[in-house]
Amino acid sequence: MSRDEKLRLLEIIWSDLTLEGDDLESPAWHEAALR
Predict the structure, then answer these.
(1) Contact between residue 34 and residue 6 where contact means Cβ atoms under 8 Å apart
(2) pTM for the full model?
């Protein structure tokens, strides 16, 4: 996975989190996903 792909994925995940109102309560799972 390239750096650009990771950044794009992160943007998608982040927008999903903010849309759901889940906010900053559970960011750990996507940190793990990027490892």
Answers:
(1) yes
(2) 0.44
